[in-house]
Design a protein that fits this description.
The protein has 319 residues and is of the alpha/beta class. The chain contains eleven helices and twelve strands. It folds into two domains: 178 residues, Isopropylmalate Dehydrogenase; 119 residues, Isopropylmalate Dehydrogenase, CATH 3.40.718. Its main location: cytoplasm.
Length: 319
C-alpha cells in the first residue's frame, strides 16, 4: 500500500489533559476525510470506539467509531489532574506510534500533548520535550520545530530555554543547521527554492551595533555565505516589522531567534489552527500547537481545531 494511503498514527499523550477529548472530536468531524487510529486506553476516549489489532484495520473501522489500538493504562482518567501513574504507558504509546510509522505501517505521526512533569515524576522522563524524545527514537541528532498555519510558517532557532541563555545558545553552526534543515524540508514539500526570512536577535536587528553586535559580528556574514551558496535568504531583519500582511508575502518561512519571537506572531494570526511540525525526522510528525489544558479538561470546552489541522497537515505532507 502506498504510504499516502496508510492511516495516520496518533499517540494519546497525557490522558488527564484534553488529548482524549480532541481526538474523539476529530473522529466525529473527520470520519471519511482522514483515516487515523489512536494508541491509548480505549476507556479514556469519548463516543464510539472500535478496537483494532493492526493499523491496516483503521480505514474499515472509521465509519463505525474511532479506531483504537487499546493499551491498558491502569488507573481511571481524572480530567484536569496530572497522573504520573500513567507516565510509563504514555511513553510506550509514543514509542509504539513511532515504530509503526518508521516501519511503514502508518503514513505519519500526529501526537496529542504530553505533560512533561507528569512523565518525569512517574517515569523519570529525561527529555526537555516531545520533539527531543522523537529525535532520540528516530536516531537523529538535529531536528527543527516549525509552527505553521495557512498564513505563516515560523521556526524558532532556540526553543525551551530561558531568554537569558539565548545569546550564548545561538551559534553560527547551530543556526546554519536550523536553516539548512528548514530549507531542505520545505523543498521536500514542493518549494523549489524556499524563501527564508531571518529575524535579528536584538531590537531593530541591532540597529547598526547600537543595540547589540551579534547581527554585525556573525549573523549577517552567515546570511551572506548562505546566499552565495544559492539559498534565497534575507536578514537579519527587525522582528517587529516581519509579520504584518505585506511583509509575509515576501517569504515562505521566518526563522526566529527564540521561542516567543516565533510563537507570538503565529498564535496571534491563528491561535486555534496552528500546527507544530518537526522537521529533520525520517517521518512526518505533526501536533496541535497547544498543551494539555488541564484547566478545561473534562468540561466540554476543548477545541479540536488545531488537532484537526495537524491531522490534515500530516496527510498533505505524507503525500
Amino acid at each position: 500500500m502506498p504510504r499516502a494511503d496508510l492511516p495516520i498514527a496518533v499517540s494519546i499523550g497525557e490522558p488527564a489533559g484534553i488529548g482524549p477529548e480532541i481526538v474523539s472530536q476529530a473522529w466525529e468531524r473527520m470520519s471519511g476525510e482522514v483515516d487515523f487510529f489512536v494508541i491509548g486506553d480505549a476507556s479514556h476516549l469519548n463516543g464510539p470506539v472500535v478496537r483494532i489489532s493492526h493499523p491496516a484495520e483503521a480505514a474499515g473501522a472509521m465509519p463505525r467509531g474511532l479506531p483504537v489500538l487499546s493499551r491498558e493504562f491502569g488507573p481511571a482518567r481524572m480530567p484536569g489532574t496530572a497522573q504520573p501513574e500513567h507516565a510509563t504507558h504514555t511513553i510506550r504509546a509514543i514509542e509504539e506510534a513511532v515504530a509503526l510509522t518508521m516501519r511503514g505501517e502508518a503514513a505519519a505521526l500526529t501526537t496529542a500533548p504530553i505533560h512533561k512533569k507528569a512523565l518525569k515524576d512517574g517515569a523519570g522522563f529525561a527529555y526537555p520535550g516531545h520533539t527531543e524524545f522523537l529525535a532520540h527514537l528516530a536516531g537523529v541528532d538535529d531536528v527543527v520545530m516549525m509552527l505553521a498555519c495557512p498564513e505563516l510558517r515560523v521556526v524558532p532557532a532556540t526553543i525551551h530555554i530561558p531568554l537569558a541563555d539565548v545569546p550564548t545558545a545561538l551559534t553560527r553552526k547551530g543556526l546554519t543547521q536550523t536553516i539548512r534543515i528548514t530549507w531542505e524540508a520545505l523543498r521536500d514539500q514542493g518549494l523549489a527554492n524556499p524563501r527564508i526570512a531571518l529575524a535579528g536577535l536584538n531590537p531593530h536587528a541591532g540597529e547598526g551595533g547600537a543595540m547589540g553586535r551579534e547581527e554585525l559580528d556573525w549573523i549577517a556574514p552567515l546570511v551572506a555565505d548562505l546566499r552565495a551558496e544559492g539559498l534565497a535568504i534575507k536578514g537579519p531583519l527587525p522582528a517587529d516589522t516581519m509579520f504584518h500582511t505585506k511583509a509575509r508575502e515576501g517569504y515562505d518561512v521566518a526563522i526566529c531567534m527564540y521561542h516567543d519571537q516565533a510563537l507570538i506572531p503565529i498564535k496571534t494570526i491563528d491561535f486555534a489552527g496552528g500546527v507544530n511540525v518537526t522537521l529533520g525526522l525520517p517521518f512526518v510528525r505533526t501536533s496541535p500547537d497547544h498543551g494539555t489544558a488541564f484547566d478545561i479538561a473534562g468540561t466540554g470546552r476543548a477545541d479540536p481545531t488545531s488537532f484537526i489541522a495537524a491531522l490534515r497537515m500530516a496527510r498533505e505532507m505524507s503525500r
